[in-house]
Amino acid sequence: MSQSPPPCPVFLFSMDSDQFWAAPTTTGGLKAYYQRYGCNTEHYHIELLHFRDSEAVTEWRNTAQASVLTQIHAALNAGQRPIIGFSMYTWNAAEFLSLIHAIKSGCPDVLCIAGGPHVQQAEDYLFDDPIDLIILGEGESSFQEILDAPLNNSWASIKGLAFLRNDELIKTGGRERRTQLDELPSALDVIDLSDAEGNPLYDSVSYETSRGCPFKCAFCEWGTGAIGTKMHQFSMARVRSDWRRIVDAGIKDIWLADSNFGALKEDLEKAQLICELKAETGLPNSFATSWSKKHSPRVQEIVLLLHRNGLLPHYQLALQTLTPLALELSNRKNMGANKYEPIAKQMASAGVPIAAELIWGLPGDNLPEFEKNLDQLLRTFPNLNIFAYTLLPGTEFYEKREEYQIETIPVAGYGKAKGEYVVACHTFGRDQGIEGYFLITAHILFAHGHLLPLSIRYLALQGNITTAPLLRNLLRAVCLEYQSELSDIDLSDRMVVYENRARLYTAMLQNPDRLYDLLKQLVLSYLSAEHCSELQANITNILELDAALSPRVGEPSETEYHFNFDAVSSKTALDCLSLPCTEDFLHNSQTLKIKSPGGIGVILKDPDGGGWLRGEIANACTEIQAVRIMHPNVKPQINA
To answer: Where is the B12-binding domain positioned along the sequence (predicted)?
Structure first.
């Protein structure tokens, strides 16, 4: 009696973005769905191959790829059609395209399926890369039907697919979006969250409580037809069950993949649930999401609830641009400044880590308008997250690149695999576009990297100083100063500086005294040139405070600093987006201990997380709270 062959192998690949180690819920969801609804579950063995980062992919190719190829060959020899599937996002597309070419060159008959936001413009991949099938839109049902009918003569009857037939692109009819999300089994049914000793296998879980986005932003793929505009959500019973499993496994963080958290009335109940779990178990440590584009009373209630329970790493208002034409072309309408400015200042006064998002490079924008917007938001928000616009497949701007005369250059040399930097369009030229990248690099380093956050805010709050020229001057001088330490990269090339900002950041912090001597000289010279010499004495004090609180290399430390002004009062005012008082600078001698966590270049290697490793004033909580209440330039806190 002949022995039946082993189950046909199906390998599903996924990879996290840098510094984000989460359970593979996307590919796990596909496996769980097939195990519940597939017709031939005993015929397949589905294995999840999940990588922490690109280095893990390289290690796998060196150590384990040969074993997978052996399994694929064995299945082919047994008359089966083994499958490789890839969950494609901007951060993993280059690695996965390379991996696809390697596997298909060794096993050309393996069926290769790709899905995810990055490949929704299927024609850009099917003609150039050895991908057999691309799933368009939601993937669970399409994946199940492919496995139950893997031969290509059945693909035309499956909705939501793109493939080539006789070198002709075929796109089947669109798949209707699923409205009853509880029909989808939980990915956690098939993913091990902890090891045999009960230790968590992942740092976090990316979890969606809803699908869809009501907005159709032209730069974003979220609200397009592939995912849909109407929002649908999982039941609270489902969310409660899954979140309980996550915290019981000891996983530190729950980060939502929702598009507009706070927009649905049930989102308040979800926030209450996460706070209950925190109070009961101590987990999660933090809770992050993409927030509702509208700051409603419900959103405010959720933000304050999470903040009170120590769960809010940041709350971001996704403004993206303030330029009227850019807003119009992006299909967006922000809340008025008269609404978000008091919200931002009140939340900052309450200690809520509120931030605004801004994008450079959107069609309709230009550098002078962007610089004006930057100054306005520096005066309004304690933190800004500024992103370079990367043209993504499947978006409206991608479709209209010729109409808007969009010029791009490849991201890090990868081209379509990593996306395309927009460097020019019909409203700004190439030199202006690249200068914008240089400007946001300066902001990322000096403000977001927590090198000069208080000094930049102090100058922006003056109202008569444009910070953009100063930021660019600082960055140009730094590039000259540190070129010899980074001789393998050309710091005279502005895009090279943008792409290598992490290396520049860690190089600068090797010797803080050298760095801040240079920055002080440049800031004072700039104020003199701008006929603002009356600010030089005060900014010298603020620069000393920035230097004391900046991230550091090495081990954690506690250092005593002496200031010739009221550093605590000045910092509190600036934290609350107010100018320090005249009295704050009247030779109030003050000695403070600053605790630094250290870790730059080891724990953190880029400026994007500089604020996480900043120094903190030790044993000054009571004094700071008193100042927060009594400081004449700090407005009352928002009602909590």
So the answer is: 7-157
498 with 489: CB under 8 angstroms? no
**CA–CA distance, 39 with 633 (Å, rounded to integer):** 68
What is the Cα–Cα distance from 193 to 245, expressed in whole angstroms? 9
CB of 254 within 8 A of CB of 205? Answer: yes
Task: Say if residues 441 and 498 touch (Cβ distance below 8 Å).
Answer: yes
Residue 553: CB atoms within 10 A of its CB come to 15
Residue type at 331? N
What would the two tokens of residue 378 be? 């520096």
Q: Per-residue DSSP letters for 294-354?
A: S--HHHHHHHHHHHHTT--S-EEEEEE---HHHHHHTT--PPPHHHHHHHHHHHHHTT--E
Indicate the burial class of 37 (C-beta count within 10 angstroms; 0-12, 13-18, 19 or more): middle
DSSP H or E stretch at residue 270:
helix 266-281
pLDDT, tens digit, for every residue of 24-53? Answer: 999 999 999 999 999 999 999 999 999 998
Largest Cα–Cα distance of the chain, in whole Å? 96
pLDDT in tens, 315-329: 888 889 999 999 999
**Band of pLDDT at residue 115, cut at 50, 70 and 90:** very high
The mean pLDDT value for 192-213 works out to 93
Residue 149: helix, strand or coil by DSSP? Answer: coil
How far is residue 229's CA from residue 593's CA, in Å, rounded to a whole number? 52
Which bin fits 593, alpha (ψ -120 to 50), beta or left (φ > 0)? beta
pTM of the model: 0.86
